[in-house]
Write a structure and sequence with these properties.
Largest sheet: none
Structural class: mainly alpha
Oligomer: single chain
Length: 66
């Protein structure tokens, strides 16, 4: 498993390699303030936000909730 620092470095490196139209922002999707900051970044960079995908991963044992 990658450490948060190496994941951050890889994300930033990928965005840089993709060019000026790519942005990487590590975000905790369980934190409403971080989600707000992510949306604000998209609006500031691209002038709006049309689609957002929560592609958060889950690791460890999974259990049925109901």
């Amino acid at each position: 498993m990658s450490s948060p620092t190496s994941t951050l470095d890889k994300g930033e490196a990928l965005a840089a390699a993709l060019g000026p139209d790519a942005v990487f922002r590590r975000t905790d999707v369980s934190d409403p303030e971080q989600i707000g900051a992510l949306v604000a970044t998209a609006i500031a960079k691209f002038g709006g936000l049309h689609v957002m995908v929560n592609n958060a991963g889950v690791s460890g044992a999974m259990h049925r909730l109901a």
